[in-house]
Amino acid sequence: MMFRKLLWAGFLSLLILFSVPTRATEKQDTLRVLFVGNSYVYYNNLAQLINLLTDSMPTRLICTKSTVGAAHLGEHWRGLRGLRSKTLIAEKKYDIVVIQDNSMWPLEHKDSLLFYGKLFADWIRSTGARPYLYSTWARQKTPETQAAITAAYAELATAAGAIRVPVGDAWELARQQKPEMVLFHPDGSHPSPVGTFLIALSFIKKITGTLPARFRQVYNYPDNDGESFRLMQLTDEEMKLCAGFVEQVQSKQ
């Protein structure tokens, strides 16, 4: 009798154990993103920063780049200056390809932006990827040109069926609401570390629909030898401000 009771008790224990629901491991989605552009991409390692920022998010962005300084989309399309952007798009099976023209082209060569932007958008879609546009900012000394830059990329987005990432809009808002914020490199064109952080959040929000729940003050990135280097270090206030500007801009779209 005692043996039967012990056996029954053991059976009930196992039944309870296997009846308790266990929390399934949440699987992280990933999207492979290629940036086709120039120094506005490689300054402060934008692609690597986005990788780090999305590492703990439900959707992780794995970003790579095809860039050379001051490149415009015509050079990317024709494979000049050692660029292989079209080949990379065709061979690597990206989910998203971001295209960005020379920073002055929307103002000085808008027809070229529209022409090659449309060619790239069609090429990107033919591979099963989605085309995104890196809508850039006005230079430090000419903030009045922002409206024309934004309008050119908006026109391309409509003509090419592409998604415009409103980076320049976020910069404009930041310059209006927090003029002492250091967004620019000393050359007045390229982004500072804070500027690159604002760019990264603009892409993350537009692609995933959300922003990271938490930020680190220091971002380190591993190199090929397993060591790590300091990618960026910002204050809590700077990161909070950048997140707020991105939310404000994209909530209106």
Explain the overall architecture.
It is a single chain. This protein is of the alpha/beta class and 253 residues long. Helices cover 49% and strands 16% of the residues. It contains 11 helices and 7 strands. The chain has helices at residues 2-19, 39-42, 46-53, 73-78, 85-92, 105-108, 110-126, 146-160, 167-177, 193-208, 236-251, and strands at 29-37, 59-67, 96-99, 130-134, 163-165, 218-222, 228-233. It has a 5-stranded parallel β-sheet with strand order 2-1-3-4-5, sandwiched between helices. Strand 4 (130-134), helix 8 (146-160) and strand 5 form a beta-alpha-beta unit. The longest helix has 18 residues, at 2-19. The N and C termini lie far apart (74 Å).
Any chance you could write out the topology, listing elements then pairs?
Blueprint: H1 2-19, E1 29-37, H2 39-42, H3 46-53, E2 59-67, H4 73-78, H5 85-92, E3 96-99, H6 105-108, H7 110-126, E4 130-134, H8 146-160, E5 163-165, H9 167-177, H10 193-208, E6 218-222, E7 228-233, H11 236-251
Parallel strand pairs: 1-2, 1-3, 3-4, 4-5
Antiparallel strand pairs: 6-7
Helix pairs in contact: 3-10, 7-8, 9-11, 10-11
